[in-house]
Amino acid sequence: MAKKLTPEQQKWVKTRDELISEIERLGFPAELGYECAKNLGGIKAMERMMAYLRYVKPGKAELVVDEMLAICSEINAWREKKASEEANEAYNEWLNCNNREC
Question: Which of 6, 10, 65, 92 is the most buried (most CB within 10 A)?
């Protein structure tokens, strides 16, 4: 028996399928779309990739892959920044607490 998808999972599958369709519309194989979706991971990242494809209409697979890697890189940089901010906040709380002997 097949497991029923959550609404968020359904949206992810729909977005993945749209990304694959956009890539196929440009003349590239569906496999490229599957790999892009797998690497991008999130709905917003895939939507951003689709916007690039619709606007730029790249003629080479290398350009598609380069944009996918750029999006992934920006997402990773954002995650690292957030983790750093959280660590900094925790450290500042610790310093403040030690100065006041909490």
Answer: 65
| Integer angstrom CA distances of residue 72 from 25, 85, 94 | 23, 20, 33
Domain ranges of the chain: 7-100
Segment 52-81, tens digit of pLDDT: 999 999 999 999 999 999 999 999 888 888
- Rounded CA separation 46/81 (Å): 21
Enter the pTM of the model. 0.77
C-alpha distances (whole Å) from 39 to each of 72, 75, 89 are 7, 11, 31
On whether the CB atoms of residues 36 and 64 are closer than 8 A, the answer is yes
> What mean pLDDT is reported for the chain?
92
Burial of 75 (C-beta count, 10 Å sphere; 0-12/13-18/19+): middle
pLDDT given for residue 102 in this prediction: 63
50 CB neighbour count, 10 Å cutoff: 17
The per-residue b/e assignment along 1-10, b for 16 or more CB within 10 angstroms, e otherwise, is eeeeeeeeee
